Amino acid sequence: MQNKCTYLDSVDFTIITPISRYIYKEELLRLADSIRWDCVTKWILVYDTSRQHDLQPMFCDSPQVTEVYFQAEEGAVLGNMQRNRGLQNVMHCKT
Question: Residues 82-89: what's their mean pLDDT?
Answer without folding.
Answer: 68
